[in-house]
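Researcher: Good morning. I'm working through a list of sequences from a screen, and I'd like to move beyond sequence-only analysis. For each chain I'm collecting a predicted structure so we can compare shapes side by side. This is the next one on the list. No need for commentary yet; just the structure.
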Amino acid sequence: MANQPQVKIPHARKKLMQFCILRGIIFAMTYVIKDLIAALNSHRISARQLVEDCLAAIDAPDGEGQRAFISTYHEQARQQADMVDHARKHGWAVPQFAGIPLSIKDLFDEAGITTKAGSIVLEDAVPATADAVVVARLKAAGFIVIGRTNMTEFAFSGLGTNAHYGTPRSPFERDPKNAEAGRVAGGSSSGSAVSSSDQMAAATIGSDTGGSTRAPAAFCGIVGFKPTTNRIPANGVFPLSTSFDAAGPMGSSVDCCAMLDSLMAGGSGQSEAAFPVKGLRLALPMGYLFDQLDDHVASSFAHAIDRLSAAGAVIEETSIAPIEAMRPSNNAKSIVAAEAYALHRQRLESDAATQYDPYIAHRLAGGRDISASDYIDMLAILKQIWADVQAVIRHFDALILPTSPALPPSLATLDSIDDKTAANARCLRNTSLSNYLDRPTITLPCHAPGTAPVGLSLIGSRQHDRRLLAIAAGVEAALAAAGQAPPATGNNQPIASGSDRSAE
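Model: Good morning. C-alpha cells for this chain:
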C-alpha cells in the first residue's frame, strides 16, 4: 500500500473540534445537518462559529478553497450568522435551518450577482435580477450561502477540470504541497463536492445532466442525488440540456440530501424514514455497465453487495436489453450535444469563441451537424426506451450498480483533448444511464474506510424520488452497520491510496 497522505486541519477547525469534544457534540468529524440543527438550537455551537470554521477551511493556504470556490461571501455570511445567533439568544423564532452554511454551484442565479457558469465568457453579463427558485427556497429555510463553487465550464464534462479558475482535487491522493498533483474531483459540480468533503460548507447543491452531482460525489466520498428531471424548478439555473438537466444536493449523508431535496422541491425539509433492507428487491443490470471496472471499484462494490445480501436484500443479476441498447455510443448522447450547441452557437460563431476552454468548445461543436429531424427522432426513441425498460424492471425496487467504473483520474493523465474525452466518457458511462431514463438516482460511498473512494448507485422509478431516498437511507445504514463505509470522507480524515492503479 502506498503512503497515506495526511490532510492538515485548519487551526479554527481544531478549535471547533475541541469545542465539540468538551460539549459532547457528536458531529466533530463530519457535517450532518440534523445534528448541526440540534446543536445550534441548544446553543452548543453558534452560527458564527460554524461559519468561521467553514471560512477557515476555505481560506486555508494548503487547502482546496481557492480552486473549489469562484467567490466567497465572507462578511455577508458573518453578518447573517450574527443575526441568527442574536435571534436565538433572545428566543425569537428562526427558520428550521437557520445558520447552516450552504455552497451553491456557479450556475444558480443570485440577485445582483453575475452567473458565470464556470466561464469567463459571461464575465460581463448582466447580473441576475432574482435568486433561482431553489436558492430562494433554501435561503428562506435559513441556510447561509457562503459562496459560489467552481465547476466545469458550462457544466459540459464529468471530470471537473476548469481552465479559467483551476481544478479542484479529490481528497484521494491529494498533496497539499503540490496543487498540480493529485486526481480530479469529478464534474461538473467539482467545487460543490469538494466544499462538502472538505467541510467548507455544511451542505451544497449542484446540477446533473450526465452525472454531474453523482460523479463528483463518488470521487470525493460523499452522497449525491439526482432527482427526476423537472421535479425541481429550473428557473434561474443556467442550462446545458433542458431534456436532462436536474438540480440536486450533495452532502455527508442520505439524510442531508433528503432534507435539501425536500426544500428544493418546495417541501418542508423533512427526510425519509429508512426503508428496510430485508426483502428489498435490487437488480444488477449486467452488461456493459459492469465491463472494465477498476479492481478497487469491483472489489468495493462486490463487498457492498455481499453486505446487503447478508442484511436480507434480494439481489438479482438481470440482463436488460433496452439498457444494453443505450451504450455510450448511442444516439441519446447527441440530444445533450444538440441542445448545448443550440444554446452556445451564437457565441461560438463570434469573437467570444476564443474565450472558451478549447476542450469545452470541442465538445459543444459536436452538436453542430445534428439536424432538427434527427433531434426529434432521438427524443421519440428515448421515450420508447423508457417504456421498454419499465416493462423489464417494474418488479424491482431499484437498480444497483457502481457509480463510475473508474477511480478519479489523475490530473497528469489529462493533458490533451483526446485524453479528456476518453476519461470523461469512461467516468460518466454509468451515471448517464439514469439521465437518459429520467430516473432519480443516488450515489453513496461503498468503499472501506481509509481506501480510495467508490460510489454505489441506486436508480429508482420516475417521480418516486422520495421512496428512493428512503431506500438509500436503509442501504446506507446497512453498509455502516457492516463496517463498509462511514457517512463521508472529509478533509479532516486521511485518505489512503489503495494498491489499485488501473485508473491511471
